[in-house]
Amino acid sequence: MTPARIGLAALGAAILFAAPAWAQKKYDVGATDSEIKIGNIMPYSGPASAYALIAKTQKAYFDKINAEGGINGRKITFISYDDGYSPPKTVEQARKLVESDEVLLIFQPLGTASNAAIQKYMNAKKTPQLFVATGATRFGDNPKTSPYTMGWQPNYQSEGRIYAKYILDTKPAGKIAVLFQNDDYGKDLLKGLKDGLGAKASMIVAEAGYEVSEPTVDSQIVKLQASGADILVNVATPKFAAQAIRKVGELGWKPLHIVNNVSNSVGSVMKPAGFENAKGVLSTAYLKDATDPAWKDDAGMKEWSAFMDKYFPDGDRTSSFTVYGYASAQTLVQVLKQAGDDLTRDNVMRQAANMKNVPLNVLIPGITMTTSPTDFFPIEQMQMMSFDGEKWNLFGSVLSGELGG
Predict the structure, then answer these.
(1) Which residues of 16-48 are buried (b: 16+ CB within 10 A; e: fewer)?
(2) Model confidence pLDDT, tens digit, residues 313-324
């Protein structure tokens, strides 16, 4: 055979063997032709065990997807472990999921401290720590150093910017007092508020931090009232937020009172604070409220209700956690569908960072999910709402708290 013919034969062989590779499916551990293994870490026990309802809802949603044929023909195996809301246990469970169970990714691990404990490990292992269940800004503000970590819900700085925008629009000559939890969560939201106020950050005339070990925040509220402020931004977890609302009422102080999103539960905050004290308090929302009669004929909430009937009949329909779990699971399914037959960890993150105005049927109208390689915050819009003494009522337009925007 002449050299020319040898070359042509070799080229033909190369093409013959390369052709199947061009159409080949790509998998990392945790994905096959028939299965996608998803890990999860949730506090099924301990002080935050109420959040376990989120993972139970997610499992029910994945059961629904599997019953309908899976994602591109692949069934989801959802492996969820308890960490008791203890960061050392979170580390242990993350290692088990990645190294023993060999999941494709860990989805919605819950808690700021818990996620902080595994962030370096997950990125070192190049395994997605995807759509974390915390609003801490650190889980999305640096895609370059943590390319495998992404948030989901509105981050605390975005929320703070939204409050700043509302205050500047409605009470630009006001004096602001801030109650905040003295940790990364409280400081994160306070930073967003100050950044949003910009040149008018001097409107903040008083700040009072509290430690979670303190029995009450009564003394902080007394101090803030003495500042002469006519706006109070209440950046506290449920127990302390309720105490603050009650104390403000007892003092006869009548500021424009904003309570942060994580503490606007009617049952665990407004009721213990006293409905009369809570009347007129403002907050934000991004998900539809299943208990709000305004949504009773809404198509998206009807779909959620049908899902609950069929796949999670024992689930608590009055809890925001069942709506949250449903929406977050929908988001992961969207990303996995986008990934197609390239179920590598890198492509999952590439797809998660390439959502363009994706709607979910339980997001408040006007709010969509958008990400990019430099924006790891899917939801950065919220709508203001007011408590009328019985329920929350949305008002105004959807506001954006986009970082850098």
Answers:
(1) eeeeeeeeeeeebebbeeeebbbbbbbbbeeeb
(2) 999 888 888 999
